[in-house]
Design the sequence.
């Protein structure tokens, strides 16, 4: 076969087995330890569902190191004359050598990621038995296999272009980070000095709690490695994997294929006699140097710009760049003796950095009218029954117009705040927070929940591929609490919009894994007597069996709280904590019937035992709780 | 047959080889001599398609050699700086070669290793410089390729082993009708093994000739005349080198002995004596004639 040579691959792997084992073994071990630490740390806060973030923190860093090392190991021959002679004199086409090493690298990455995924699954199953979702582990495997492969192909491409290892690493970083970084830094500059607004009428002028602002997310829609790294580094309250989507996974994969094809071409035409200096051509050397200076300059520039930058700081920045510019030649072993030429490139670099700062520092305002609105979603209400990254886009045109008018024309109210997300035709996302009267708030929220998009979402929320259920701090697999789950599905049609609005304080959460994330769908249950009854029976039974029948000789390690689970009440109440009457409480509750009157107000008693993560719930009618309190106060 | 047509190669805009032309006939050992930096190693790397040509063409058996695996299976290149996979033994390297060259004979390798007393199961990293070179040569010869390219191949090998290896090379050429291109800056290493000799100078093959023919067409003559002579007096001869010391004129001349003697006798020398020329001397004189001299 022209592109693959098994014998060469086996010998190349055999030759490098020590380095490969060390690299992969070390990475496997570190990932195992980091995931274990993450799991232990998260579990100490209470029962959790494992998500990609908990599993990925080491991989986000390793994806920039392991594939580069792999590439340098497999293609190590390109940096030494004797190894170039040995390898290229073999009866193989150059493209066969390149493709064999590339496919070989992919095979090794796949094996490594399979082992990684297996170990991570093993850890998760050990710490959180039962409640895992297979497709998440498949995605974990897929995302990092593709990401590693992407970095690996870029490394292979870089070594086709360069003459020594240090320049290879520089070109890898440029290929990986330069374009998305420039896109991000441009958006960041723009975001800083751009004002977005709507044509707001006089009576609504004081409407905004917060002025409209554009949404800026680092690494949006970029390839996986950059996206995950930049989200991790910028720490903008987002978990690094939550901004990722399947589009980016596919994009990363497609780019990898493109880079392989490009790599084959470049390897075929590589000048193997250039194995020491960065590049044979001094213009290419200077250009690459400038491409490394510009991002550093812009990053330092934007930092100074935002902090008000004193003139001395700018001189300091210039001095830093100059030192770097000179040192770069020594590091990459290529000295350009033509001082004038080097100075021209340096001046060009400074002009770009200065131009960027001056251009994007100029304040600009964009005023949007309704024709430029692509979609509208409501942020706060969405969270009443869901926990997902994007708001639901409203479908009804009339409702969209009504919301736009609400933002621009509605007189100011003071009781309730409401937040909308406008996606504009130019791709910008504008957030607004406005204040309204309670009546207007209720009216608009009701209309939004009755909008087809929300109705569809609720339907999908019930029909989703759920794998776990939680209530308060209890977490179950769907199958272990099938009774509750089936009842939820049975009763879903009896839930009305107001249940979703009022149900935010007490709900059962259904979890599904969707779009690389664990999405939670919150089902309000206290308004639905059948759902409520099922829960009451479950907890009262369980608490009686596991808690009330136990003897607690020392009552000091027990605390008791109670909340009103009352129809129509939005406020949870922590009435008091009782520490010295445990046995009396236990005796009292033991005498109670576990079945309660669902038509009367209900109170949930919450027992916490020191040293136990689990909460014990016992539901009683309010009148019984009053009786208990009176008894204790005597 | 290896045919080089207008071969040019430059490194960082400096020509190493420029418009090089030449032919290496089948079933011969061709010695390529050149000073350091003359482009000998670059030429071998171009023939084995490690480097790409800037201009011109290199064909083996009328086929373009560049990136041609089927043709490369007929070529074995032993470079000046050797490389073996880390911790590999001769046996491991033999297995590796066998996987890529169908004509490779492990038995032949073993017998050659036995003659040279090279252990088959010891890591090549523990070998001395000379043993490593011997190993590289026998690994190449056991391939039974059609073309061999040896770069400074006798470096670091002691004279006794060198003689044995030369015998092995000659036998390989006879038995398998191979063609060998051997480069060296040391002419003495080549004169007893090569059939042909080429001199590479400033990126071009200055001359190429059969060694026997070369020896038969270069003569060193010492002459003495009653009347002092200058170089101009010998203008009708093809002079490679001329030296006048006291009453003695020493000339290195190109041509047939008979013709040279006839021409010189016409000048009535008092003394005329032919001095034996080694191949190395011929090489030095030719290079001096081309202006290649080091000023002390």
Sequence:
């Amino acid at each position: 076969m022209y592109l693959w040579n098994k014998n060469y691959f086996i010998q190349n792997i055999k030759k490098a087995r020590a380095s490969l084992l060390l690299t992969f073994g070390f990475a496997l071990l570190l990932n195992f330890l980091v995931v274990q630490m993450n799991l232990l740390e998260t579990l100490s806060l209470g029962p959790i569902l494992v998500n990609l973030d908990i599993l990925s923190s080491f991989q986000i860093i390793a994806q920039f190191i392991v594939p580069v090392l792999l590439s340098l190991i497999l293609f190590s021959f390109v940096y030494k004359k004797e190894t170039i002679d040995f390898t290229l004199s073999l009866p193989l086409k150059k493209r066969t050598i390149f493709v064999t090493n590339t496919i070989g690298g992919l095979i090794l990455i796949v094996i490594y990621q399979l082992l990684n995924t297996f170990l991570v699954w093993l850890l998760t199953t050990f710490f959180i038995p039962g409640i895992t979702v297979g497709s998440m582990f498949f995605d974990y495997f897929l995302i990092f296999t593709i990401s590693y492969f992407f970095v690996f192909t870029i490394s292979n491409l870089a070594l086709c272009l360069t003459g020594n290892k240090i320049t290879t690493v520089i070109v890898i970083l440029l290929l990986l980070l330069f374009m998305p970084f420039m896109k991000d830094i441009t958006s960041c500059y723009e975001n800083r000095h751009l004002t977005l607004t709507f044509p707001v009428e006089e009576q609504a002028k004081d409407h905004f709690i917060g002025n409209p602002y554009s949404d800026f997310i680092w690494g949006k829609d970029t390839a996986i490695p950059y996206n995950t790294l930049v989200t991790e580094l910028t720490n903008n309250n987002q978990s690094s994997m939550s901004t990722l989507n399947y589009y980016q996974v596919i994009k990363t994969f497609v780019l990898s294929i493109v880079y392989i094809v490009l790599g084959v071409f470049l390897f075929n035409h590589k000048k193997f006699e250039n194995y020491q200096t960065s590049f044979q051509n001094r213009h290419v050397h200077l250009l690459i140097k400038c491409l490394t200076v510009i991002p550093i300059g812009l990053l330092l520039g934007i930092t100074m710009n935002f902090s008000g930058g004193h003139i001395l700081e700018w001189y300091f920045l210039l001095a830093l760049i100059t030192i770097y510019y000179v040192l770069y030649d020594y590091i990459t072993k290529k000295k350009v003796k033509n001082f004038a030429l080097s100075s021209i490139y340096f001046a060009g670099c400074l002009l770009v950095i200065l131009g960027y700062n001056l251009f994007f520092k100029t304040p600009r305002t964009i005023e949007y009218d309704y024709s430029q609105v692509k979609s509208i979603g409501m942020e706060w209400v969405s969270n009443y029954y869901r926990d997902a990254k994007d708001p639901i886009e409203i479908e009804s045109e009339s409702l969209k117009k009504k919301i736009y008018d609400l933002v621009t024309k509605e007189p100011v109210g003071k009781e309730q705040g409401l937040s909308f997300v406008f996606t504009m035709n130019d791709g910008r996302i504008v957030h607004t927070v406005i204040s309204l009267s309670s009546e207007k708030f209720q009216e608009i929220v009701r209309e939004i929940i009755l909008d087809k998009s929300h109705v569809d979402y609720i339907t999908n929320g019930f029909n989703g591929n759920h794998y776990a259920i939680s209530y308060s701090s209890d977490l179950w697999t769907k199958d272990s609490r099938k009774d509750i789950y089936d009842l939820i599905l049975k009763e879903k049609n009896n839930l009305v919009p107001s249940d979703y609005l009022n149900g935010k304080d007490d709900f059962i959460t259904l979890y599904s894994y969707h779009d690389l994330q664990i999405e939670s769908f919150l089902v309000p249950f206290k308004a639905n007597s059948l759902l409520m009854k099922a829960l009451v029976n479950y907890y009262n039974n369980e608490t009686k069996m596991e808690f009330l029948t136990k003897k607690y000789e020392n009552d000091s390690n027990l605390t008791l709280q109670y909340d009103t689970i009352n129809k129509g009440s939005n406020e949870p109440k922590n009435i008091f904590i009782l520490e010295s009457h445990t046995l009396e409480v236990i005796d009292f509750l033991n005498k109670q019937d576990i079945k309660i009157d669902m038509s009367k107000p209900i109170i949930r008693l919450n027992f916490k035992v020191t040293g136990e993560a689990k909460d014990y719930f016992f539901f009683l009618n309010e009148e019984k709780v009053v009786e208990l309190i009176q008894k204790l106060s005597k | 047959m290896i045919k080089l047509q207008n071969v040019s190669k430059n490194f960082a805009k400096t020509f190493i080889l420029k418009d090089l032309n030449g032919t290496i006939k089948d079933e011969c050992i061709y010695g390529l001599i050149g000073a350091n930096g003359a482009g000998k190693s670059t030429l071998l790397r171009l023939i084995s398609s490690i480097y790409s040509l800037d201009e011109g063409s290199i064909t083996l058996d009328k086929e373009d050699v560049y990136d041609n695996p089927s043709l490369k299976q007929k070529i074995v290149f032993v470079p000046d700086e050797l490389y073996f996979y880390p911790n590999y033994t001769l046996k491991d390297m033999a297995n590796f070669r066998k996987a890529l060259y169908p004509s490779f004979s492990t038995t032949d390798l073993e017998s050659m290793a036995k003659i040279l007393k090279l252990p088959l199961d010891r890591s090549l990293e523990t070998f001395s410089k000379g043993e490593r070179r011997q190993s590289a040569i026998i690994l190449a010869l056991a391939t039974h390729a059609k073309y061999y390219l040896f770069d400074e191949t006798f470096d670091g090998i002691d004279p006794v082993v060198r003689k044995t290896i030369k015998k092995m090379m000659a036998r390989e050429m006879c038995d398998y009708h191979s063609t060998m291109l051997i480069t060296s800056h040391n002419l003495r290493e080549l004169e007893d093994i090569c059939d042909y000799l080429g001199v590479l100078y400033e990126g071009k093959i200055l001359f190429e000739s059969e060694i026997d023919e070369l020896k038969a067409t270069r003569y060193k003559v010492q002459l003495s005349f009653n009347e002092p002579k200058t170089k101009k007096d010998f203008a009708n001869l093809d002079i490679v080198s001329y030296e006048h010391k006291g009453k003695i004129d020493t000339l290195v001349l190109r041509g047939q002995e008979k013709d040279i003697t006839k021409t010189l006798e016409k000048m009535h020398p008092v003394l005329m004596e032919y001095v034996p020329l080694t191949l190395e001397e011929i090489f030095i004189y030719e290079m001096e004639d081309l202006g290649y001299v080091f000023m002390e």
